[in-house]
């Protein structure tokens, strides 16, 4: 079975400070990992993904995430938060050996950046 | 490219009514998905399709039906609407599960459905 956990429902950070949104996963083999962002009244937008290779993945809008196999984590980070980063963030996972099985999404973490 | 389009954007149904949520994509993607999003509950997969003529159940298929007669279209049917189906529905598509494009899903803007 594959699963993903986002342990924080809400993350608050001051504008200009670094931000981290946490994600841990569970798969039997190796994972494909994704981050998506959802702005109010919009569909989800792809931010970045880890397939293979470099553990540090850079994505859209200055976001990055680090794949840590020993800790089974894929935390989303940004060095300096903007008010416009306030949104709902979803982590997703799929076992690379799971055939056509779709992605499993976490429950989401609401990020609030305060000016 | 319009990407993934969904209609309608909003709908109010009475209990027991039926309706079809439309979804279309113009990216020639093989895979299409239907999700529902309830407040604080994240996304739950209703049905998905890996190609025309092939559909499969997701986590919460009860009360819904789908068909995939073409690559472009993936309509979701609610036969007897119930208040528990009040939610925001998202359609998504992806190229496939191999290669560099693996699993990157593209989402539509959503349909907000209220059942009273």
Description:
The complex is a heterodimer of chains A (115) and B (116). Chain A contains no helices and twelve strands. With 115 residues, chain A is mainly beta. Helices cover 0% and strands 52% of the residues of chain A. Chain A starts with a strand and ends with a strand. In chain A, strand 8 and strand 9 form a beta hairpin. Chain B is mainly β and 116 residues long. In chain B, strands 2, 4, 5, 6, 9, 10 and 11 form a seven-stranded mixed sheet that branches. Chain B is globular and about 40 Å long. The termini of chain B are far apart. The chains are: A mainly beta (115), B mainly beta (116). At the A-B interface, strand 5 and strand 6 of A face strand 4, strand 5 and strand 10 of B.
The secondary structure category of chain B is: mainly beta
Low-confidence stretches of chain B: none
Number of strands of chain B: 11
- What is the distance, rounded to the nearest whole angstrom, between the alpha carbons of the first and last residues of chain A? 41 Å
Determine the number of helices of chain B (DSSP H or I, runs of at least 4 residues).
Answer: 0
- Sketch the topology of chain B as an H/E string, one letter per element: EEEEEEEEEEE
Fraction in beta strands of chain B = over 45%
Q: Whole-number average pLDDT of chain B?
A: 92
| Helix and strand sequence of chain A | EEEEEEEEEEEE
Query: Over the alpha carbons, how many angstroms does the gyration radius of chain A reach?
Result: 14 Å
Roughly what fraction of the amino acids of chain A lie in strands? Answer: over 45%
- Specify Rg of chain B, calculated over alpha carbons: 14 Å
On the 0-100 scale, what is the average pLDDT of chain A? 93
Helical run tally of chain A:
0
Distance between the termini of chain B: 36 Å
Structural class of chain A: mainly beta
Largest interface by residue count?
A: A-B, 22 and 25 residues
Shape, principal axes of CA atoms of chain B: globular
């Amino acid at each position: 079975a594959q699963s993903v956990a986002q342990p924080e429902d809400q993350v608050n950070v001051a504008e200009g400070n670094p931000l981290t949104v946490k994600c841990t996963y569970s798969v039997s083999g190796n994972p494909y990992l994704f981050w998506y962002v959802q702005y109010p009244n919009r569909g989800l937008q792809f931010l970045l993904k880890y397939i293979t290779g470099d553990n540090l993945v850079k994505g859209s809008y200055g976001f990055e995430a680090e794949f840590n196999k020993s800790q089974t984590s894929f935390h989303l980070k940004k060095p300096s938060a903007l008010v416009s980063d306030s949104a709902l963030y979803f982590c997703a996972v799929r076992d690379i050996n799971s055939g056509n099985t779709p992605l499993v999404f976490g429950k989401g973490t609401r990020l609030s950046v305060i000016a | 490219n319009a990407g993934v389009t969904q209609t309608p954007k909003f709908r109010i149904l009475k209990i027991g009514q039926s309706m079809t949520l439309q979804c279309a994509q113009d990216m020639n993607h093989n895979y299409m998905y239907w999700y529902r999003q309830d407040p604080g509950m994240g996304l739950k997969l209703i049905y998905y399709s890996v190609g025309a003529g092939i559909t499969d159940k997701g986590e919460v298929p009860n009360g819904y039906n789908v068909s995939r007669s073409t690559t472009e279209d993936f309509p979701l049917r609610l036969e007897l609407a119930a208040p528990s189906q009040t939610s925001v529905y998202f359609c998504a598509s992806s190229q496939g599960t191999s290669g560099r494009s693996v699993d990157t899903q593209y989402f539509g803007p959503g349909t907000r459905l209220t059942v009273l």
